[in-house]
Write a structure and sequence with these properties.
- It is built from 14 helices and no strands.
- The protein is mainly α and 456 residues long.
- The longest helix is centred in the last third of the chain and has 52 residues.
- The chain is globular, with a radius of gyration of 24 Å.
- The protein starts with 11 loop residues before the first helix and ends with a helix.
């Protein structure tokens, strides 16, 4: 349907309305240059939010498989398979979000390429159970279904970067380098799944491949420059994926408590897991959004380098919190899970998220002074206390529904883990704000002085 031109050509507001309406309703092929008008920022689109949902499903499945693998006694294999899955999924998401921030014009081609990538995420998710089983058996976690899903996820991005090279001559070399790097790496990912090799050799190959992929990207950006990405858009994209991943923790809490209630009715353990899940989600959400990522990146976009990569373990750790809650439910229900295993499954991911929040703050604010360390230590102290409780109570005996002391200790441990997020939030609200303002003010004054010296 053709949209009629405005009746009154002299009224700019009417003209602008029809221009926006035409862009909103017609998705024919559009040029990639000028996606973000000067002086403005691009908001996150509904397509990007839909795209993120498939990735959170993959994170959730990985956390679910982690809990099952650890419950079966394969702790190291479960953690290794989780790291592999989170990197594969998170790295593909990061690469596409980087492209979309610069060239996401929302035309028909971009939409189709995005939807194809979503199909790839689902295919990869179907391969995760086998990946965890293979890791537990000491085999290659990069099975063919995972590799095919990853190929479907990343092949459209190669074509999109080639398209960017054609449309944006100023950044042509960077776009071509991205396309070549992703295409070459994806070929090796596929070969690593097809060529028979032992589990140890496969892990070494995957670690080397990850290091090369990340290193090549750094070289491209340092030598050829960055594409015209939008800092506020990326800050919103990363934060929204963290938010949706926290939603997976809510789903894990609901699933775990629901299974407990269905099998034995409400109990103190079920109520503790339910309360802890909500407190953990609220505390981690509050703490993450206390880092002023959007404001700082809008002013100092060069600080995005470490910030973006720190989100890869962040997403994995948040998803693993859900796995820890599932494992806690399995322990209350009975099985071969020990109190110490449950404790580590909760303490490790929560502690990692808290530490990464402090790392994000330090990276963005450019402040590494010791005045911030006591706040981090105070937030981690309840987690250390939870480990002590587990060790003192008896870490090696499996928990069960009739283990009264173990169940009581588990409730205390869950409460301590949840309390650590409260300490983090309260500490940031009481002293973090003024500390952030002072640190940024010092940095700004130092930059002004350096500029004055350079100008003279």
């Amino acid at each position: 349907m053709t949209i009629p031109e405005p009746a009154i050509d002299g009224e700019d507001t009417v003209s602008d309305f029809y221009v926006d309406l035409r862009r909103e309703l017609r998705h024919r092929l559009r040029p990639l240059t000028g996606v973000i008008p000067g002086g403005s920022s691009r908001p996150v689109s509904p397509l990007e939010l839909l795209y993120d949902l498939t990735y959170v499903v993959a994170f959730g499945k990985a956390a679910e498989e982690l809990a099952a693998t650890v419950a079966a006694g394969h702790v190291a294999a479960g953690v290794g398979a989780l790291v592999f899955a989170v990197f594969a999924v998170g790295w593909a998401w990061l690469n596409f979000s980087w492209y979309a921030s610069a060239y996401g014009n929302d035309d028909a081609l971009f939409r189709v390429a995005t939807i194809i990538q979503m199909v790839g995420v689902i295919v990869l998710t179907f391969g995760l159970p086998q990946s965890f089983e293979d890791a537990a058996a000491g085999a290659n976690p990069n099975n063919l279904m995972v590799a095919v899903g990853y190929l479907v996820m990343r092949a459209p991005l190669v074509l999109l970067w080639l398209r960017a090279a054609r449309h944006d001559r100023r950044h042509r070399r960077t776009a071509l380098a991205y396309a070549a790097a992703i295409g070459g790496a994806q070929l090796v990912w596929l070969l690593a799944a097809i060529v028979p090799m032992s589990g140890v050799l496969a892990v070494l190959v995957l670690v080397l491949l990850v290091a090369v992929e990340m290193g090549v990207r750094i070289v491209i950006e340092n030598r050829l420059g960055w594409p015209p990405w939008d800092a506020t858009h990326l800050a919103e994209r990363f934060s929204l994926l963290a938010l949706i991943t926290l939603g997976e923790v809510v789903a894990a809490t609901t699933e775990a408590v629901g299974a407990l209630v269905q099998n034995g009715g409400w109990s103190v353990g079920a109520a503790a897991i339910a309360a802890a899940g909500i407190v953990l989600v609220a505390g981690l959400w509050w703490g993450y959004y206390l880092v002023p990522s959007r404001l700082i990146l809008a002013r100092w976009p060069e600080r995005i380098f470490v910030w973006r990569y720190a989100h890869l373990p962040m997403y994995g750790a948040i998803a693993a919190v859900g796995g820890g809650l599932r494992l806690a439910a399995a322990a209350v229900e009975g099985g071969q899970v020990t109190l110490l295993q449950v404790t580590i499954a909760l303490v490790a991911p929560v502690g990692l998220v808290i530490a990464l929040i402090f790392l994000l703050w330090s990276t963005l604010v450019h402040a590494y002074d010791l005045s911030h360390i006591p706040l981090l230590a105070a937030a981690l102290l309840p987690l250390a206390a939870a480990v002590v409780v587990a060790v003192v109570t008896g870490p090696t005996a499996p928990l069960g529904p009739d283990d009264g002391p173990g169940r009581d200790a588990l409730i205390v441990i869950i409460a301590l883990v949840a309390f650590s997020t409260i300490v983090e939030v309260v500490g940031h609200e009481l002293i973090g704000y003024t500390h952030t303002v002072r640190a940024l003010r010092r940095r700004e004054l130092a930059e002004r002085a350096a500029n004055a010296i350079r100008d003279t």
